[in-house]
Q: What sequence folds into this?
């Protein structure tokens, strides 16, 4: 049922050409999804400033270009995740102010101003090798409006480095803990903090690490409460989840 | 939006107390789900004769009794799967014509006549130990309106038993192949037939069988095309899927 | 026992040179397989129009060329699945009307007309990245005689897109649901439909996706009944299974 | 180093009986952990109203009684999770106002008033069998100060039930999605909402469910962003994580 | 086609009432499976002395009794594997000379004399706990006609115990190596011998043993060549496989 | 203790320069391994005609050349398995009569005549893609003295192809069944034969095949008795195991 | 070759009744294993005070009684691990001074004095539920001669408890870290210490813990160097390994 | 709190400008971690001669260069593990005396003399292909001050090679057993020795080896006591753990 046919139906009601009971019956069976679609779309428009996200893997360059072009028209911000340098090179002509974050493998095009949150996200990471995933979390959260700080290379093999920065954990509202190997960082951070902790296992490691499975299982079994886990290497997901929490803090602070 | 409020809205349209454009806007945002709910419900009522299904595990006896009682009121048929003898004993007073199939662990209460299909389902099973799962498929498909035949104990270790019954495979429209151990039955049946084959791995086996994983993987990797797989021991699912195929055959035969 | 020796035996029976009982004994032990082979072969010939299928992986170019050439002689249609562009280039000289579907990685050579079914298959897919697997299902089903429609990019993260197209599900006789990541599409489609649903998990995803295992397990555990699952990325298998169902519908519609 | 010896050291500094440099050296090597311990203890005391939590499995009845008694002295609230009815019977004499939630398998003893949050947690669950895990989340979050609402039995096999309650998702600040089988609920809820979603896979299912692994992997691979996952059946962890988010909302709302 | 109808057909050929070509055509399509069945049956009868085997798990007592009774009539030997003491008690009235081997969990009823092989099977086992599986292999091989010797408790943690018995390995024609834990016995035995070695992993162990998976994988990856592996705890299978080898040795020795 | 020092000791005994008891004591503690080593070496020399085997993966070209050269000196036959074409090119100058089997990835250098067995090995394989593994088994068994026959492309999806060749199974003493995908071939062959069956799972397949795991588990769980399994793709191991069986048949036939 | 026959051979040498060269030949082939056995036995006797160990699972009460009785005769100490209370009750009459450690599930019978080491083992454990495994390590190490200290309930969720006891880690020569859940304790202890750390994963946990797999993988992937891992719940193995290290320290301290 | 501010605080105490109680309060909350950090640093300085270790994977060339340069300034020894030839080429200009061990993939720069231990480590390996991992263990242990010996190519398929070298095991204080395939070497070595055994599974193998999982599980389940396991291919970790044991032996030998 298109908007036109809905208009026709209501006209018929108005003109008495159709019984109200009969109209109700038709409306009941109307393909609600179209209306629902519009509704959600409308709803989305309210959230101005939120970027539309493109997950690049498995998409061809022409597909990615096409999606970017269609969002450019809508004047929304655009965040492309898991974007290789090659993808960036292939799309960078689409917008003069396109930004590329190579470590985070993220492309960003700003068309609307981002209002930064007062509440803060702290991204903590274990080793140097975990930094790309941590950076993906940082860039994602920032582009979704969060104020983000970094605390890197504080793995539990040298626990004093983490302890020496406990005040920084205390100052954040949400903590993202990024770690590979055995993923113990999430438990230690969770034990040191009563903030929501988002744990990101990374695939850094080898052998019985099984591509991040060791860290993933460790984080799911954390003896510290208050830890939510995202997929292996999913810095984007962690940044996104953090932004939903920060958003609730901001919305309810008004 | 309840039916009442919808009536009120349409009355306002009729009476000119609200602009059609405005009404459209309201309808667009109306919580479509309620209507959708009603619609599907209505739709379901058309399929008279179809039992409502209760999956028993994890439900308490009082919960199961409650659900049965509410369906009894609606005068629909009831099929309770994975129902232990204990459950049957605890609910058998609810309906005088309640039936219990101990091997299939299924309870059935008929309130509406089932029209049997002309198209046939053949349930083929490997060993004696697979029979309970096979029977679950049989009872499920029968109560969902299928004409069902059994061909049991024709495992591939004695391939001649299966070959000797090839004509029975040829006479069915849908074949369900139930097997544990290495699950090779599905491939052999699939190779002998150009009918849709629904493969049910069972947990019969031990050691590196890993609770039916061996048969499951084998069936998913069948070198015969045209095989769809359901969960381990899921005789119910196989019977149900068969019934949807039979139903399409019957519907389109008219 | 060749046809010649069988003829000799029967001549001996006719001429009384051998006792009937003795002939029976010989026939009992006759290598039935040769006859069986012929029989099935014969049976296969009836199904004119059905393509012979070549699964390319693990076969050398000369092997593939040889198989194609031998089928060309038989005047059957040929469908080569999992055929890389390189394979296509290496065999395209074999038939002037050879077709290549790059997304579906399928080669088709038509030698006999395909009669399209009235019954319809709807191929539903989750994300853009799932399209190659979906296309493999589409091409396979079409070349096996099905009328196929596509409904792509209706993943559950934006459930309204799927709901808005529920009527298309309603209009099909068989639905193929193709999805990677968490594979929830199969459950939602299964819940919206009482048609047979063939679920195809794809390997799209990363980390704890484990090459499609996440979607595979999800689909096998679908809370919606009536879902049969094929192997990860097995668009071919889904298309083939759909064609066996459609075939039964068509055969029984006469 | 106790507070006494620290006092003595400082007195010595004050009296000039020890060089400042020497005192620094001692302080540098002082077992900082004791102070750290005290500090955290002190810090914990500020969070009055927060229960101390006892994870019961693997603890003997005498151990559990001992821990409860020691907390009773401190006048803190006590939440014992995974507490069987047998444990409850064995400890219920310890406090007259002890409460037991059998579905949630939780014991609570209130000694300090809990101030309820304005921000709300909505606990959504798939099937009847998931309710015990959902209730564990509810009781945990409530005892940790959250206002909690329930939305049960809205699994994706009947998507309309969930859609019909979308407004309830919209009214909460945090959503907990509890589901077994294929765990698709988390993705659908995540797609319908821009709130933080905490996904709890349950072990409800059989066969290729592998004790909740299917739902766990599905939730980790959710195509909806903004989903954090806790361990299988970990209703407690979900409730706790929700409470840390709610707490940040409340703290920053002042 | 029954034997009767085959007789009728041949009579028709003899009497000239049917063309030979026509008869050939009919025979070509004759349901070979029935003849095949008979043939194989016949073939089986030649192997007199071989027991018919009943795998007990998943079969009910009445089913097992029924199968035993039907074999008793045929005057074949009967070997029931995985037979609990309870099963033995329930069937022991069926034959006066029934034997029960509790460690091997095997029932045997002799109706035909077993001719013992000259070639020998040596069953080697690692620890005391592996003995039940080893005994299952011993009893199976013996009842299938093998001369069997035992060499138990020679695990690799005390390699001298095995080395001190190398001559016993040298004197056998087939070696069965039964071991749990890490299953290294198979490799060491394989390295010491140029006989066929059948490796049986047992489920003895705990933790990362994963129900025998550790030993299974070790045996499949043996650095010693000439090792064939059977399922975890499958003493029966090892004994059976050994008997097929011994049988070939005996048959070809004549 | 070298042979020299042993000679000296015995001379001392002979000359009465050392007490027998004392000599016994020394001999008791003599590093038996050296003698043991010699003994085994000696034993090996008896088995003239047996090739020494080189497993190439993980070895450098110089290492492989060195090993070949040292065996050439000993005038033994040499079989190098898993030898890439590159390796062959790098070593082919070492012996004028070097042979390379590219499908089997095997190098062979004959220095001693191989006496062919009368007993036969039949290598059965499922699909065209399994041939390289099957060929590895063929070449290995042949070079170890077996008479080998091939029966390829008789996968269970077209069971008649296998049945039509049952007599070839009957004529062999040992059967090797090579199959990927779901590995059902081993069960069907095992069911058709009472010969020892060596099952070789191959890694042919994709998705839930998990690199041959599906076929491996299927073969370990074969419902046909008398099947021994080797590692995935381990054609060499199957050929070797077959040769140990054939060897026992030949040795005991004299 | 027994000692008697060796004596006879040497006598023959002495008397010139056999050539030395011939005697060497015989000795070369002498079943070295028997001598080797004696040798090792002798060697074992030197290690007086070391208990002989009985691993109880899978052994019957009579078997355990028999083994204990045979060791009692040898006057060695006896340590029975994984001994249930039931086993203890069934064997306690065998020795008046038998000791039972119920938490450690260990039986000990002292017949020879144990000399305690100066070097110390510290057993650190995460939670109350890990204590049984920790106690198994303690009892094992103590009975093998180690001086052992306990540091329990210092899991990483409250890292200060561990830090406050760092000096105790500093005072030990070997540290055993026992932890379930995510097993992070091993990494943190490893990071705080430059002593050998033996990590024992426990099966404490649920869901994605998979019976201790999470802790096991975490410990194997520890970002702290110097950590050796034993099997899940293997307190005995950790105690034993610690004792071998302590023993080397003691032996080399002299 | 820096040392300066601590000095200021103590001066204030001395001068009476701050109450002792107040100072205690400040010290209690002082960021102990900084002091703790210094303390550990100080402690580290004592261990002169110990190299600082760089784990190369996941680090960029500039990062590795930067880390090396900063350690060069501190005049510590440097050990870079998992360093490819490419990395070596890119950093070799940083120090004239840089050494590269290509098999061990290790870079070493000596700035301080290494005092070799009297106690010895023996590195035992199974096959030629395991040598790179074994060499990583050798180089690591040597650079950490251990005297190391090699015993290579003594896999259990030819057990005599190992037995012939038992005296070398007896002469070492710590044994590292490196093996791929089925990893049985660790059990055999553990059975032959009462020294601490560090087991290193390697990823050598294929098929059901699953990248070293087979050897890993075997080693964790070793029937020989006294075996500690490190991650797959983790020669570095084994060498490091060995050095911690050797170090305790040396320290306590004084």
A:
């Amino acid at each position: 049922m298109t908007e036109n046919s809905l208009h026709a139906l209501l006209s018929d009601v108005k003109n008495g050409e159709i019984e109200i009971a009969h109209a109700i019956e038709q409306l009941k069976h109307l393909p609600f999804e179209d209306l629902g679609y519009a509704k959600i779309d409308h709803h989305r428009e309210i959230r101005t400033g939120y970027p539309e996200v493109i997950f690049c893997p498995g998409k061809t360059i022409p597909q990615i270009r096409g999606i970017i072009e269609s969002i450019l028209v809508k004047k929304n911000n655009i965040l492309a995740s898991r974007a290789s340098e090659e993808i960036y090179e292939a799309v960078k002509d689409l917008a003069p102010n396109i930004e590329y974050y190579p470590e985070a493998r993220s492309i960003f095009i700003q068309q609307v101003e981002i209002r930064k949150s007062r509440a803060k996200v702290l991204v903590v990471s274990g080793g140097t090798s975990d930094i790309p995933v941590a950076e993906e979390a940082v860039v994602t959260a920032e582009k979704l409006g969060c104020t983000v700080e970094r605390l890197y290379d504080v793995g539990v093999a040298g626990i004093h480095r983490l302890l020496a920065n406990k005040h920084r954990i205390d100052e954040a509202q949400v903590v993202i803990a990024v770690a590979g190997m055995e993923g113990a960082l999430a438990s230690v951070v969770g034990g040191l903090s009563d903030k929501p902790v988002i744990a990101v296992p990374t695939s850094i490691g080898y052998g019985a690490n099984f591509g991040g499975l060791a860290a993933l299982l460790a984080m799911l079994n954390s003896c510290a409460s208050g830890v939510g886990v995202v997929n292996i290497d999913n810095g984007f997901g962690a940044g996104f989840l953090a932004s939903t929490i920060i958003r609730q803090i901001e919305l309810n602070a008004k």
